[in-house]
From TrEMBL:
Task of the protein: Protein transport. Probably involved in vesicular traffic.
GO biological process: protein transport
Claim: Mitochondrion is one of the keywords in the record: no
Protein name: Ras-related protein Rab7
Statement: the UniProt record of this protein carries the keyword Oxidoreductase: no
Localization of this protein: Cell membrane
Principal location: membrane
One Pfam family linked to the record: Ras
Record-level Gene Ontology MF annotations: GTP binding; GTPase activity
Protein species of origin: Acacia crassicarpa
Membrane-protein topology: Lipid-anchor
Protein backbone atom coordinates (compact mmCIF):
# COMPACT_ATOMS: atom_id res chain seq x y z
CA UNK A 1 0.00 0.00 0.00
CA UNK A 2 1.60 3.27 -1.02
CA UNK A 3 1.16 6.34 1.07
CA UNK A 4 -0.52 9.22 -0.59
CA UNK A 5 0.27 12.83 0.11
CA UNK A 6 0.93 13.99 3.63
CA UNK A 7 -1.88 16.02 5.10
CA UNK A 8 -1.68 18.72 7.76
CA UNK A 9 -4.77 19.11 9.90
CA UNK A 10 -5.22 22.03 12.22
CA UNK A 11 -7.11 21.31 15.41
CA UNK A 12 -8.07 23.93 17.97
CA UNK A 13 -8.79 23.07 21.60
CA UNK A 14 -11.13 25.39 23.51
CA UNK A 15 -12.84 25.40 26.88
CA UNK A 16 -12.76 27.11 30.26
CA UNK A 17 -9.54 27.48 32.15
CA UNK A 18 -8.72 24.43 34.29
CA UNK A 19 -10.86 21.83 32.47
CA UNK A 20 -7.74 19.93 31.38
CA UNK A 21 -7.00 21.06 27.82
CA UNK A 22 -3.23 21.14 28.26
CA UNK A 23 -3.27 17.91 30.29
CA UNK A 24 -5.20 16.06 27.58
CA UNK A 25 -2.73 17.19 24.95
CA UNK A 26 0.28 16.36 27.11
CA UNK A 27 -1.10 12.91 27.87
CA UNK A 28 -1.85 12.30 24.21
CA UNK A 29 1.54 13.42 22.92
CA UNK A 30 3.94 12.56 25.76
CA UNK A 31 1.99 10.00 27.81
CA UNK A 32 2.52 12.09 30.92
CA UNK A 33 0.29 13.72 33.50
CA UNK A 34 1.13 16.58 35.83
CA UNK A 35 -1.01 17.23 38.88
CA UNK A 36 0.22 20.79 39.20
CA UNK A 37 -1.64 23.51 37.42
CA UNK A 38 0.43 25.63 35.09
CA UNK A 39 -1.60 28.26 33.31
CA UNK A 40 -1.09 28.22 29.57
CA UNK A 41 0.23 31.48 28.26
CA UNK A 42 -1.16 32.60 24.94
CA UNK A 43 -1.49 29.97 22.26
CA UNK A 44 0.85 27.17 21.31
CA UNK A 45 0.71 23.98 19.29
CA UNK A 46 2.03 20.43 19.31
CA UNK A 47 2.07 17.94 16.45
CA UNK A 48 1.38 14.23 16.17
CA UNK A 49 1.69 11.98 13.13
CA UNK A 50 -0.98 9.42 12.46
CA UNK A 51 -1.67 6.99 9.70
CA UNK A 52 -5.30 6.78 8.72
CA UNK A 53 -5.93 4.19 6.04
CA UNK A 54 -3.36 5.03 3.37
CA UNK A 55 -2.90 8.61 4.46
CA UNK A 56 -0.16 10.07 6.58
CA UNK A 57 -1.72 12.80 8.67
CA UNK A 58 -0.02 15.40 10.81
CA UNK A 59 -2.30 16.72 13.51
CA UNK A 60 -1.35 20.23 14.54
CA UNK A 61 -3.09 20.74 17.86
CA UNK A 62 -3.43 24.29 19.16
CA UNK A 63 -3.73 24.90 22.88
CA UNK A 64 -5.22 28.01 24.41
CA UNK A 65 -5.51 29.68 27.74
CA UNK A 66 -9.24 29.54 28.52
CA UNK A 67 -9.26 32.78 30.39
CA UNK A 68 -8.09 34.64 27.35
CA UNK A 69 -10.62 36.66 25.49
CA UNK A 70 -11.45 35.22 22.13
CA UNK A 71 -10.59 38.31 20.17
CA UNK A 72 -7.13 38.51 21.66
CA UNK A 73 -6.15 35.21 20.06
CA UNK A 74 -6.19 36.82 16.64
CA UNK A 75 -7.48 35.62 13.29
CA UNK A 76 -4.38 33.60 12.40
CA UNK A 77 -5.19 31.35 15.32
CA UNK A 78 -8.48 30.26 13.76
CA UNK A 79 -7.54 30.51 10.12
CA UNK A 80 -7.59 27.16 8.35
CA UNK A 81 -8.88 25.19 11.34
CA UNK A 82 -10.12 21.73 10.33
CA UNK A 83 -11.70 20.75 13.63
CA UNK A 84 -12.55 22.40 16.95
CA UNK A 85 -12.33 20.37 20.15
CA UNK A 86 -14.46 21.69 23.01
CA UNK A 87 -13.54 20.54 26.51
CA UNK A 88 -15.47 20.79 29.78
CA UNK A 89 -15.01 19.28 33.23
CA UNK A 90 -17.84 16.86 34.15
CA UNK A 91 -17.48 18.02 37.78
CA UNK A 92 -17.92 21.74 37.08
CA UNK A 93 -21.31 22.85 35.81
CA UNK A 94 -20.11 26.26 34.73
CA UNK A 95 -17.59 24.73 32.32
CA UNK A 96 -20.50 22.91 30.65
CA UNK A 97 -22.75 25.97 30.60
CA UNK A 98 -20.13 28.03 28.78
CA UNK A 99 -19.92 25.52 25.90
CA UNK A 100 -22.60 27.43 23.99
CA UNK A 101 -20.46 30.54 24.09
CA UNK A 102 -17.29 28.72 22.99
CA UNK A 103 -19.19 27.09 20.15
CA UNK A 104 -20.76 30.34 18.95
CA UNK A 105 -17.61 32.38 19.33
CA UNK A 106 -15.56 29.86 17.44
CA UNK A 107 -17.95 29.92 14.50
CA UNK A 108 -17.98 33.70 14.54
CA UNK A 109 -14.20 34.02 14.63
CA UNK A 110 -13.35 31.17 12.27
CA UNK A 111 -15.63 32.65 9.65
CA UNK A 112 -16.20 29.19 8.22
CA UNK A 113 -17.86 29.06 4.78
CA UNK A 114 -20.26 26.42 6.04
CA UNK A 115 -20.70 26.93 9.79
CA UNK A 116 -23.48 24.37 10.16
CA UNK A 117 -21.16 21.68 8.89
CA UNK A 118 -17.98 22.71 10.68
CA UNK A 119 -16.68 19.71 12.68
CA UNK A 120 -16.64 19.99 16.46
CA UNK A 121 -15.93 17.30 19.03
CA UNK A 122 -16.83 17.48 22.71
CA UNK A 123 -14.71 16.00 25.49
CA UNK A 124 -16.08 15.61 29.03
CA UNK A 125 -12.88 15.41 31.07
CA UNK A 126 -11.86 14.42 34.63
CA UNK A 127 -14.25 11.49 34.89
CA UNK A 128 -11.77 9.85 37.28
CA UNK A 129 -12.37 12.32 40.11
CA UNK A 130 -13.93 10.76 43.19
CA UNK A 131 -14.78 7.67 41.20
CA UNK A 132 -17.37 9.70 39.30
CA UNK A 133 -19.27 10.64 42.49
CA UNK A 134 -18.62 14.34 42.17
CA UNK A 135 -19.76 14.70 38.59
CA UNK A 136 -22.55 17.20 38.03
CA UNK A 137 -23.06 16.81 34.28
CA UNK A 138 -24.50 13.46 33.20
CA UNK A 139 -23.49 11.69 30.02
CA UNK A 140 -27.09 12.07 28.84
CA UNK A 141 -27.05 15.83 29.35
CA UNK A 142 -23.81 16.14 27.40
CA UNK A 143 -25.10 13.94 24.60
CA UNK A 144 -28.32 15.98 24.38
CA UNK A 145 -26.22 19.11 23.95
CA UNK A 146 -24.21 17.41 21.20
CA UNK A 147 -27.40 16.33 19.46
CA UNK A 148 -28.74 19.88 19.59
CA UNK A 149 -25.64 21.15 17.79
CA UNK A 150 -25.94 18.75 14.88
CA UNK A 151 -24.63 15.48 16.31
CA UNK A 152 -21.24 16.42 17.61
CA UNK A 153 -19.25 13.30 18.64
CA UNK A 154 -18.79 13.02 22.40
CA UNK A 155 -16.06 11.33 24.46
CA UNK A 156 -15.64 11.10 28.22
CA UNK A 157 -11.98 11.29 29.13
CA UNK A 158 -9.46 11.35 31.92
CA UNK A 159 -6.13 12.99 31.27
CA UNK A 160 -4.97 11.65 34.61
CA UNK A 161 -5.79 8.01 33.87
CA UNK A 162 -5.13 8.27 30.13
CA UNK A 163 -8.68 7.15 29.51
CA UNK A 164 -10.24 7.41 26.04
CA UNK A 165 -7.77 10.02 24.79
CA UNK A 166 -6.33 8.05 21.86
CA UNK A 167 -9.84 7.15 20.74
CA UNK A 168 -10.96 10.77 21.00
CA UNK A 169 -8.01 12.11 19.00
CA UNK A 170 -8.41 9.42 16.36
CA UNK A 171 -12.00 10.55 15.93
CA UNK A 172 -10.78 14.15 15.83
CA UNK A 173 -8.30 13.28 13.07
CA UNK A 174 -10.88 11.37 11.05
CA UNK A 175 -13.43 14.13 11.43
CA UNK A 176 -10.93 16.79 10.43
CA UNK A 177 -9.80 14.66 7.49
CA UNK A 178 -13.35 14.27 6.26
CA UNK A 179 -13.70 18.03 6.32
CA UNK A 180 -10.37 18.68 4.59
P1 LIG B 1 -6.40 23.84 31.15
O1 LIG B 1 -6.42 25.18 31.81
O2 LIG B 1 -7.71 23.54 30.48
O3 LIG B 1 -5.24 23.68 30.20
O4 LIG B 1 -6.26 22.73 32.30
P2 LIG B 1 -4.94 21.93 32.75
O5 LIG B 1 -4.61 20.87 31.76
O6 LIG B 1 -3.86 22.89 33.09
O7 LIG B 1 -5.49 21.18 34.03
C1 LIG B 1 -5.97 21.90 35.17
C2 LIG B 1 -5.81 21.05 36.43
O8 LIG B 1 -6.64 19.90 36.34
C3 LIG B 1 -4.38 20.54 36.63
O9 LIG B 1 -4.11 20.55 38.01
C4 LIG B 1 -4.44 19.12 36.13
O10 LIG B 1 -3.50 18.30 36.78
C5 LIG B 1 -5.87 18.72 36.46
N1 LIG B 1 -6.44 17.73 35.54
C6 LIG B 1 -6.49 17.82 34.18
N2 LIG B 1 -7.10 16.75 33.65
C7 LIG B 1 -7.45 15.95 34.68
C8 LIG B 1 -8.12 14.68 34.78
O11 LIG B 1 -8.54 14.05 33.80
N3 LIG B 1 -8.33 14.18 36.06
C9 LIG B 1 -7.89 14.85 37.17
N4 LIG B 1 -8.13 14.27 38.36
N5 LIG B 1 -7.26 16.04 37.11
C10 LIG B 1 -7.05 16.58 35.89
MG1 LIG C 1 -3.83 25.08 29.62
Amino acid sequence: MSLRRRILLKVIVLGDSGVGKTSLMTQYIHKKFNQQYKATIGADFVTKELQIDDRLVTLQIWDTAGQERFQSLGVSFYRGADCCVLVYDVNVLRSFDTLDTWHEEFLKQANSPNPRKFPFILLGNKIDIDGGNSRVVSEKKAMDWCASKGNIPYFETSAKEDYNIDAAFLCIAKTALANE
